[in-house]
Write a structure and sequence with these properties.
Strand order of the largest sheet: 2-1-3-4-5-6-7
CATH class: Alpha Beta
CATH architecture: Alpha-Beta Complex
Structural class: alpha/beta
Shape: globular
Order of helices and strands: EHEHEHEEEEHH
Distance between the termini: 12 Å
Largest sheet: 7 strands, mixed
Strand content: 15-25%
CATH topology: Maf protein
């Protein structure tokens, strides 16, 4: 079984990725378990941030690394919060404050279209000249009242119209079949089979 470090300290992401990737004979270990701190995310794009995180974790762990930069992009806000989703309401990071800020920003808006983006990067070593890159998108709308007890981040406010439920109302197994991360990871694993 190959060991890969996940360049994240988010337990929700670790659980989602582990469930999706471990059937591929890959052991995913969170960077926090290896004493690795978070990388800076100064970039304006998901791909640049994900690549920076992957290289940072791989360099520190001496292992291949998987990184994700993801967020919610809201049409009425010109795509914001986008790459700033985790810190939309400022520091320290807080899902509660981020969601409150999002709903406040959307007060009076009738266009509630939004989509989640997941951009994944895997490097085989920190200076990998050919990182594997894949993306996934999940369309929905933002609602004012949270629903559901699963997931994390903006999930209680992210309604998938075709399902009539929020991302937080989906059980983890169902979310792992249809989410932006699931779509991105499926694309990444297809590349990984060729690369490895």
């Amino acid at each position: 079984m190959r060991r890969v470090v996940l360049a994240s300290n988010n337990p929700g992401k670790l659980a989602e990725f582990a469930a999706l990737i471990e059937p591929q004979n890959i052991e995913l270990v969170g960077q926090g378990a290896l004493g690795i701190g978070e990388a800076d995310e100064p970039h304006a794009t998901f791909v640049e941030n994900a690549l920076a995180k992957a290289r940072h974790a791989s360099r520190a762990a001496g292992l291949p690394a998987l990184a994700d930069d993801s967020g919610i992009c809201v049409a009425a806000l010109g795509g914001r919060p986008g790459v700033h989703s985790a810190r939309f309401a400022g520091e320290p990071k807080s899902d509660l404050r981020n969601n409150q800020h999002l709903i406040e920003c959307l007060r009076g808006q009738t266009d509630r279209r939004a989509h989640y983006v997941a951009l994944l990067v895997m490097v085989r070593r920190h200076d990998d000249p050919e990182p594997l890159i894949a993306s996934g998108r999940w369309d929905g709308v933002v609602i004012d009242t949270p629903r559901g007890a699963h997931g994390f981040g903006y999930d209680p406010y992210f309604l998938i119209p075709s399902l009539g439920r929020t991302a937080a109302e989906l059980d983890p197994a169902e979310k792992n079949r249809v989410s932006h991360r699931a779509r991105a990871l499926a694309a990444l694993l297809a590349q990984l089979k060729e690369a490895w």
